[in-house]
């Protein structure tokens, strides 16, 4: 009976055993550090929020803006991060408005609460307050932002603050579709 002698492990095997798991780990680290890459939704998730714009007698709905790319943030008057996110949406709406982008900032606060933020009056963001029943089915984190394609489907959603530079690419993709 011949005994098989152990063969030395090839350097190619060792290289592959080190390089392949390293690439996988680095990819996971990159994805976790760039949550936007994880949040772009391939599924078509519809969303429609009704809201009242202060000073207007009619209730509006996101579905009225089909044909435009929408950036919608749900905010709260006592949230400083929310106001920063609204500033980002204003910047995006100003830069991409001619291409068909619009920003909306809705809150469960009443119209009086919205009017206390005079800066909203000078922005390209449409402010509004939602009916109480709608807030129960939406995320409670503030700010919570949705990027919605021209057909009315959510293509990205995230909680917390994101800089305009982190959203520009997604907005441009949606505008090109």
What does the model show?
The protein is an alpha+beta fold. 38% of the residues lie in helices and 22% in strands. The chain has six helices and eight strands. Strands 1-8-7-4-5-6-2-3 form an eight-stranded mixed β-sheet. Strand 7 and strand 8 form a beta hairpin. Helix 3 packs across helix 6. About 3% of the residues have low confidence.
Separation, N- and C-terminal Cα atoms: 70 Å
Strand content bin: 15-25%
- Uncertain regions spanning at least 5 consecutive residues: 35-39
* Spatial sequence of strands, sheet with the most strands: 1-8-7-4-5-6-2-3
Largest sheet: 8 strands, mixed
Mean pLDDT: 84
Topology:
Elements: H1 11-33, H2 35-39, E1 45-46, E2 50-52, E3 59-61, E4 69-74, H3 80-96, E5 101-107, H4 111-115, E6 125-130, H5 132-135, E7 144-148, E8 153-159, H6 164-176
Parallel strand pairs: 4-5, 5-6
Antiparallel strand pairs: 1-8, 2-3, 2-6, 4-7, 7-8
Supply the key terms.
alpha+beta; 8-stranded mixed beta sheet; 6 helices
Task: Describe this structure in a few short sentences.
The chain has 177 residues and is an alpha+beta fold. The protein is built from six helices and eight strands, in the order ααββββαβαβαββα. Helix 3 crosses helix 6.
């Amino acid at each position: 009976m011949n005994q098989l002698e152990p063969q030395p492990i090839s350097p190619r095997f060792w290289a592959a055993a080190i390089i392949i798991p390293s690439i996988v780990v680095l990819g996971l680290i990159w994805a976790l550090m760039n949550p936007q890459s994880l949040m772009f939704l391939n599924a078509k998730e519809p969303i429609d929020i009704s809201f009242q714009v202060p000073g207007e007698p009619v209730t509006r709905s996101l579905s009225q803006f089909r044909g435009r790319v929408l950036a919608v943030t749900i905010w709260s008057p006592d949230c400083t991060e929310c106001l920063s996110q609204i500033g980002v949406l204003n910047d995006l709406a100003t830069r991409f408005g001619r291409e068909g982008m619009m920003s909306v900032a809705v809150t469960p606060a009443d119209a009086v609460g919205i009017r206390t933020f005079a800066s909203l009056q000078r922005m390209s963001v449409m402010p509004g307050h939602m009916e109480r029943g709608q807030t129960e089915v939406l995320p409670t984190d503030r700010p919570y932002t949705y990027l919605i394609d021209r057909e009315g489907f959510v293509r990205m959603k995230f909680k917390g603050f994101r800089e305009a530079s982190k959203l520009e690419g997604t907005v441009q993709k949606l505008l090109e579709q």
